[in-house]
């Protein structure tokens, strides 16, 4: 790993002024799990690393009945998983965070760092998109808030501008919304998801409305399956509907191919994942319902 | 009276230091003035080295030496094929081959210096596919051609056997290379003392074979080199004599005349091998309607990569070892080993057995199906038995295979599960089984398979064992300590096994071919009995009685006829020294089993004993994702006698999981000869959460040639896992996978093909 | 700021050190403090052999800068228990065959200590999930799972 200057601001304004001073020659470090790997493999060689480790105010997790959940960007995955607030107001988020990567990484990696790194082979972004999350970004000119959809630009690329820091993630109050999340590994011995899927919908007397169906890990950035969402609107899920939705999802997903799996395989998993998450949401058993 | 030591599940003698993190591995060692080495590797699968410019690297502050192929001895090293230099000279033959090395004051300076070395390569066409090795225009890996080794074995009348068969089945199987995946990447510290003597601490399975190879590679007398074995973090065959980094580290120490440490990164450990030998096996077998095997013919194409190493010996095992598991008279094998421009492949736990036992057990299951016979019955019907001499001349002193089959099929509920109705649905369950055999010892090196143990009993009655048989975690030192403690009548905690050291320990071959328990165990038994006799003779003289009436019980020499006659062991040990003509108790004993080397036709009883194993598994196949999950596994190992059941279960469980990894998860991915997944995130070895409870049981067949009846228990257990899983997958979904690993993609493709076939037949 | 002054506690002892900013926590522990029980197995955060407790939580020290640990209390395997006063996990790893070559053992013990701190009575499945960040090639994990269950029972007074 190349030598670098290590800066540890003790407040957000100090952090922002350090970023302004060092410009593109610096990297922001949150938990550091992904950044250090990239630096050790010399994919990144910053002159300066600005560690946010002392900004404890960015670790807070809070809930407000009107505003919903606010998760500080530096909350570690284990903090999110173990938070009684998260467990009470969005248990599916706690479940997602508690199954991510492995215990040691959950103890160190942060939810904000995860989103900023924008590695597709991970879980939070898929879930948070389905939850309708927004993010707050601090810059020298003040804060801006934008939908997570707009924040996630591409493979390892976000809307974060030079000199900005992601400070918080907001989830709207769940209301009567049902949320499910599933992670698919190619084999039980792999730990990064090959496909993940999140479903968020309002179930009104059985019929679905305001459906959000997001797949990730299969695609450069998590993809909203818009046609499938439209198809599902107003429908009550049964085996035939789930199968039809699965076919639609398989058709509209634009999967990537890499060393871990090719596009055709990922497409098949997306079909499967779609069918199963819909049947799970409807309380039906997918094991007996092969498409 | 039941022994309190033998047959007891005692913790490893190294466990206390290991749980404290205080076992010292090669990479943990540090010496005053120690320097650090790094290696530059070839980015080309095949290239001529036109020139190497090291001037910038040499000029970097902190760099003490930069060496290339031009600086290393001319003499080549190798097992039978002498092919390698300390660093590549003139030509590189695989991506990752060592081209230059740097010694510097820190690893980071050495790394920087590596980046400053400028090599001018002339890329050449590379042979990357074993199947193309004999093409007219195939690039030649070595001047003598691409065929590294060929074996032909024929016994009985194979053609007549096939003519008498009611059923003949032929198929082609392929198996991929497996990375040993020991948790300790190769590491070595080497130093030269004021007399010029070279001392090397390295992660090895055999200090004497390591010393022999260093002598050859560095072209210096054996006795000018001393090799120590520190704690070793697993070997699985990869740390016998094929890894190359210890040779480079030792050479570098001679160049800088100071201590040098070379610890490979995980990526380098992947790049430099040593992986198991991949094979393509055509297997043809004839059976009568009752399931009796009447003829077997195999044709094997195996790949050793750039250098032969131990791969010829590995391929011999693939070609003929499993023939000995059955009563079979007519067999014919042809096996060819080819070079490619890829990393060297060679020894791996199971030593060629895993490959053929995958093919054989898959084949037997298929034929059993065709004949309407339960595969367990098919195995029983053909199984070799105690007292038999096999087709290749192996004398089977004990065979617990039938009992192994009983145990695993009973435990998994084989009959009930075979009879359960098909359930349909998305998740399908299936069961499969497989059986295996392995040698315990192998007379193959210079007509000696002996083992020597030196035992000192100190003046306080405690024992010190000197041996160069090695413990890489499998429990050899615990086994030796248990036998010693039992014979001397002392607590296990009073026995110390010294780490292997070529200058103090008697000559030994080390931990290969499952030979340590069966041979070193015997030598230990003999040494301990000799020491015991000396103690009792001294005690008889001191107590004024007959030695035959004395025994040692819990550290006290006691008369068996007169309760008043006794003396604490330390008192006798001191008496043994402190008298006219006295001396400390120091005995050395050797055991060389009465085995024979194979003749030129590969016939002969090579091992004192043969181990057997069987495994039954249940899998669940997700027909939509292609994922195979092992949901239950039972493995039974006939280890003769379990001197330490805790260690035997540990071996069985570890082997079963390594086999699950090979069958389902582990696959080296190459692109133009470059390893694309040389890291532990992308080369996915099973973690605890990927596995079910792993069950193992023990069959004690009490081999007449084994020490206290024991046989080897580390390698047989890895053999049946992959075919048991393949057979269970077939049982679950009707898809026969003949090429490992069994990936989700292959499962989905197989199901799709099956669907089309069924659709077409409707 | 190419260097960083650390003020930390390691296995109960205060440590002051001046390290390069790019020093990994694993390098600092192994080379500067000579606590070689923390192992180097993959250097990419997969194998878990370098796990240590930082403020009671297991981390992979190859994915962490020494500088990040400033102010923290670190427990390495050398601090988990002593020869005469072993941690219950150390005892049960010995008794249950939770180790063979021993190279992964420190990392597993640290991961297990973290697991039992979060979940004192884990099921076998929870134990296996809790070990998903650690690789062992010798034991097949069964002895390790058995050992953690036994330690959990012992620590909970069974």
Structure description:
Chain C: GO terms for molecular function: 2 iron, 2 sulfur cluster binding; metal ion binding; oxidoreductase activity. The complex is a heterotrimer of chains A (291), B (762) and C (158). Chain A is α+β, with helices and mostly antiparallel strands. Chain A has 3 domains: 5-51, 2-Layer Sandwich (Uridine Diphospho-n-acetylenolpyruvylglucosamine Reductase, domain 2), CATH 3.30.43.10; 56-171, Uridine Diphospho-n-acetylenolpyruvylglucosamine Reductase, domain 3 (2-Layer Sandwich); 177-282, Enolase-like, domain 1, CATH 3.30.390. Chain A is 36% helix and 25% strand. Chain A has a 5-stranded antiparallel beta sheet with strand order 4-5-10-6-7. In chain A, strand 13 (207-216) and strand 14 (223-224) form a beta hairpin. In chain A, helix 10 runs antiparallel to helix 11 (239-252). Chain A starts with a strand and ends in a 10-residue tail after the last helix. The model of chain A has no long low-confidence stretch (mean pLDDT 96). Chain B is α+β, with helices and mostly antiparallel strands. Chain B is globular and about 95 Å long. The termini of chain B are far apart. With 158 residues, chain C is of the alpha+beta class. Chain C is built from 6 helices and 5 strands, in the order ββαβββααααα. The longest helix of chain C is centred in the last third of the chain and has 14 residues, at 105-118. At the B-C interface, helix 1 and helix 16 of B face helix 3, helix 4, helix 5 and helix 6 of C.
């Amino acid at each position: 790993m190349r030598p670098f200057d290590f800066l540890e601001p003790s407040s957000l304004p100090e952090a922002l002024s350090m970023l302004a001073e060092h410009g593109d020659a610096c990297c922001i470090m949150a938990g550091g799990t992904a950044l250090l790997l990239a630096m050790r493999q010399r994919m990144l060689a910053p002159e300066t690393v600005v560690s946010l480790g002392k900004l404890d105010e960015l670790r807070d997790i809070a809930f407000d009945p009107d505003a919903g959940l606010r998760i500080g960007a530096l909350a570690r995955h284990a903090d999110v998983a173990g938070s009684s607030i998260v467990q009470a107001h969005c248990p599916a988020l706690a479940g997602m965070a508690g199954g991510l990567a492995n215990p040691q990484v959950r103890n160190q990696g942060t939810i904000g760092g995860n989103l900023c790194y924008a590695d597709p082979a991970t879980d939070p972004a898929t879930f948070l998109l389905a939850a309708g999350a927004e993010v707050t970004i601090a810059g020298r000119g003040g804060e801006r808030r934008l939908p997570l959809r707009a924040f996630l630009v591409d493979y390892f690329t976000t809307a974060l501008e030079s000199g900005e820091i992601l400070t918080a993630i907001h989830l709207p109050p769940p209301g009567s919304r049902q949320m499910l999340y599933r992670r698919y590994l190619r084999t039980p011995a792999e730990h990064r998801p090959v496909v993940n899927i999140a479903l968020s919908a309002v179930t009104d007397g059985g019929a679905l409305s305001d459906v959000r169906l997001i797949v990730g890990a299969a695609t450069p950035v998590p993809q909203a399956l818009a046609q499938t969402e439209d198809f599902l609107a107003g429908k009550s899920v049964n085996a035939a509907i789930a199968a039809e939705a699965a076919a639609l999802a398989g058709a509209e997903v634009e999967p990537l191919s890499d060393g871990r799996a090719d596009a055709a395989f990922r497409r098949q998993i997306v079909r499967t994942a779609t069918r199963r998450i819909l049947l799970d949401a409807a309380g039906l058993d997918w094991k007996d319902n092969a498409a | 009276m039941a022994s309190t030591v033998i047959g007891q599940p005692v913790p490893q003698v190294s466990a206390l230091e290991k749980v404290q993190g205080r076992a010292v591995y090669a990479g943990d060692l540090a010496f005053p003035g120690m320097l650090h080495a790094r290696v530059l590797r070839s980015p080309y699968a095949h290239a001529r080295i036109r020139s190497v410019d090291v001037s910038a690297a040499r000029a970097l502050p902190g760099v003490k030496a930069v060496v290339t192929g031009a600086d290393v001895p001319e003499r080549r090293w190798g097992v039978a094929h002498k092919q390698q230099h300390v660093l590549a000279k003139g030509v590189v033959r695989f991506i990752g081959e060592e081209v230059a090395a740097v010694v510097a004051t820190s690893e980071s300076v050495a790394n920087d210096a590596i980046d400053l070395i400028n090599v001018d390569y002339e890329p050449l066409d590379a042979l990357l596919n074993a199947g193309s090795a004999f093409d007219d225009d195939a690039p030649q890996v070595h001047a003598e051609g691409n065929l590294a080794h060929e074996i032909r074995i024929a016994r009985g009348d194979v053609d007549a056997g096939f003519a008498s068969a009611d059923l003949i089945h032929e198929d082609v199987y392929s198996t991929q290379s497996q990375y040993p995946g020991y948790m300790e990447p190769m590491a070595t510290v080497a130093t030269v003392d004021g007399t010029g003597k070279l001392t090397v601490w390295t992660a090895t399975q055999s200090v004497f074979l390591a010393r022999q190879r260093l002598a050859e590679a560095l072209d210096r007398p054996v006795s000018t080199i001393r090799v120590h074995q520190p704690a070793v973090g697993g070997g699985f065959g990869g740390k016998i004599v094929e890894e190359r980094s210890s040779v480079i580290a030792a050479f570098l120490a001679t160049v800088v005349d100071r201590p040098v440490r070379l610890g490979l990164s995980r990526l380098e450990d992947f790049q430099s091998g040593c992986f198991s030998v991949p094979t393509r096996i055509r297997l043809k077998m004839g059976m009568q309607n009752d399931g009796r095997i009447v003829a077997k013919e195999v044709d094997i194409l195996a790949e050793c990569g750039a250098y032969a190493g131990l791969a010829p010996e590995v391929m011999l095992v693939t070609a003929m070892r499993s023939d000995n598991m059955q009563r079979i008279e007519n067999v014919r094998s042809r096996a060819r080993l080819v070079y490619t421009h890829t990393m060297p492949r060679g020894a791996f736990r199971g030593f060629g057995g895993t490959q053929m036992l995958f093919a054989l057990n898959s084949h037997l299951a298929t034929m059993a199906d065709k004949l309407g016979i339960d595969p367990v019955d098919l195995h029983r019907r053909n199984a070799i038995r105690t007292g038999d001499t096999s087709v290749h001349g192996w004398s089977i002193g004990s065979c617990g295979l039938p009992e192994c089959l009983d145990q695993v099929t009973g435990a998994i509920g084989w009959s009930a599960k075979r009879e359960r109705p098909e359930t349909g649905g998305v998740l399908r369950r299936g069961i499969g089984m497989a059986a295996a055999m392995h040698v315990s010892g192998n007379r193959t090196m210079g007509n000696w398979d002996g083992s020597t143990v030196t035992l000192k009993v100190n003046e306080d009655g405690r024992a010190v064992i000197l041996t160069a048989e090695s413990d890489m975690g499998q429990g050899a030192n615990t086994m030796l300590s248990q036998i010693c403690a039992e014979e001397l009548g002392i607590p296990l905690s009073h026995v110390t096994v010294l780490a292997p050291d070529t200058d103090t320990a008697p000559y030994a071959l080390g931990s290969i071919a499952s030979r340590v328990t069966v041979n070193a165990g015997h030598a230990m038994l003999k040494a301990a009995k000799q020491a015991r006799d000396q103690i009792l003779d001294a005690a008889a003289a001191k107590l004024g009685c007959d030695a035959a009436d004395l025994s040692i019980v819990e550290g006290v020499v006691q008369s068996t006829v007169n309760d008043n006659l006794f003396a604490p062991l330390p008192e006798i040990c001191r008496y043994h020294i402190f008298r006219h003509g006295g001396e400390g108790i120091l005995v050395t004993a050797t055991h060389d089993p009465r085995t024979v080397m194979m003749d030129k036709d590969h016939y002969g009883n090579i091992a004192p004993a043969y181990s057997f194993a069987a495994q039954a598994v249940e899998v669940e196949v997700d027909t939509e994702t292609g994922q195979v999950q092992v949901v239950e596994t039972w493995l039974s190992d006939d280890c003769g006698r379990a001197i330490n059941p805790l260690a035997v279960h540990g071996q069985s469980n570890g082997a079963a999981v390594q086999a699950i990894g090979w069958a389902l998860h582990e696959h080296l991915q190459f692109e133009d000869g470059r390893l694309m997944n040389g890291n532990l995130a992308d080369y996915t070895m099973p973690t605890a959460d990927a596995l079910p409870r792993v069950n193992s049981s023990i069959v004690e067949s009490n081999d007449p040639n084994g020490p206290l009846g024991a046989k080897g228990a580390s390698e047989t257990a890895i053999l049946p896992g992959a075919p048991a899983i393949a057979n269970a997958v077939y049982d679950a979904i009707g898809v026969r996978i003949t090429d490992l690993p069994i990936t989700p993609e292959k499962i989905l493709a197989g199901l799709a093909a099956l669907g089309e076939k069924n659709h077409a037949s409707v | 700021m190419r260097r960083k002054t650390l003020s930390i506690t390691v296995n109960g002892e205060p440590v002051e050190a001046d390290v390069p900013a790019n020093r990994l926590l694993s390098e600092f522990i192994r080379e500067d403090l000579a606590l070689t029980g923390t192992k180097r197995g993959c250097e990419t955060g997969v194998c878990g052999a370098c796990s240590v407790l930082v403020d009671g939580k297991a981390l992979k020290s190859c994915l962490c800068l020494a500088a990040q640990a400033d102010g923290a209390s670190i427990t390495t395997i050398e601090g988990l228990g002593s020869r005469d006063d072993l941690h219950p996990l150390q005892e049960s790893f010995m008794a249950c065959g939770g180790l063979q070559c021993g190279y992964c053992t420190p990392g597993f013990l640290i991961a297990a200590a973290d697991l039992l701190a979060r979940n004192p009575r884990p099921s076998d499945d929870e134990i296996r999930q809790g070990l998903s960040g650690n690789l062992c090639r010798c034991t097949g994990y069964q002895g390790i799972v058995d050992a953690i269950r036994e330690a959990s029972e012992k620590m909970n007074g069974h």
